[in-house]
Amino acid sequence: MSNNNGFSMQIMRVIEHxxxxxxxxxxxxxQLTDLLREYSKPRDAISSLTQKGDIVRIRKGLYxxxxxxxxxxxxxxxxxxxxxxxxxxxxxxxxxxxxLIPERxxxxxxxxxxxxxxxxxxxxxxxxxxxxxxxxxxxxSIQKNDSGNWMIAEPLKAIADKVWLDKRFSPxxxxxxxxxxxxxxxxxxxxxxxYINPQKIIELESVFSARKVTWLVKFxxxxxxx
Length: 226
What we know:
Structural class: alpha+beta
Largest sheet: 4 strands, mixed
Number of domains: 2
Number of helices: 11
Radius of gyration: 22 Å
Order of helices and strands: HEHHEEHEHEEEHEEHHHHH
Strand content: 15-25%
Shape: elongated
Helix content: 40-55%
């Protein structure tokens, strides 16, 4: 029993030391092992900390502090950039975040120039869909919150990403987009009007260089720039 108590006290000192040295809520395995380099078995200490919930393993090499040791809320949007990268928050989550669709989206959706992946973590599911480097890199906005900075697609880019990657949608002409945008994915048109930018719309056509997005551009131009 005394050995168990001694080990528990040691682990308590370990997490106090880690919390004192790491200012952010998100950290990596290298930071942990560096802080634990004086311990004979740093991996055992990390394992004990995760079992107790003092730290939470999001995925291999990526951690956050557990609730008892958390100073600030953990930004899932920022985590999305870190769980798999390079990546940018986009698609359904971005549309919800901008208030363009009424649904509250819990699955953190992103685009990436790497292959499509998804990860189920203690903080929820993170999904990543492939885009070419040119399409991926365009229309990125940097947002800030108490947890740090993170990248999200601009509103019109998030819509173009959705149109391009949604295999359910097979338009036959630009006129097909009204039902898709406003009935199927339920874009709030009054909210969309606030994000309409003629130059950004033209740039989307050039960046994607694909009929599916070209028709989206033509639909938006006809609807808002008659």
